[in-house]
Amino acid sequence: MSVVGPAGADSPLVVVALSHEHDVAAWRARHERGEVLDATPYGYERAGDRFRMAWTEPGAEGPLVARARRALAARLGFDVVHAWRNRALLRSADVIWTHTEREHLAVAALLGRGGPPVLAQSVWLWDAWPSMRPWRRRLVAALLRRHRVEAVHSAENLAASRAAVPGRRVQLVPFGSTALPRVAHRPAAADPPVVLAVGNDVDRDWPLLARAAAEVSEARFLVISGSRAARRAEWPGNVDRRARTSRAELVAAFSAASCAVVPLRPNLHASGTTSCIEALGAGRPLVVSRAGGIEAYVEGAARLVPPGELEPLVAGIRDALAGRLAGARPCEAEARGLGQGDYVERYVRITRWLLGGPWDSRISAFAPLTGARTP
Question: Pfam families given for it (predicted)?
Answer without folding.
Answer: Glyco_trans_1_4
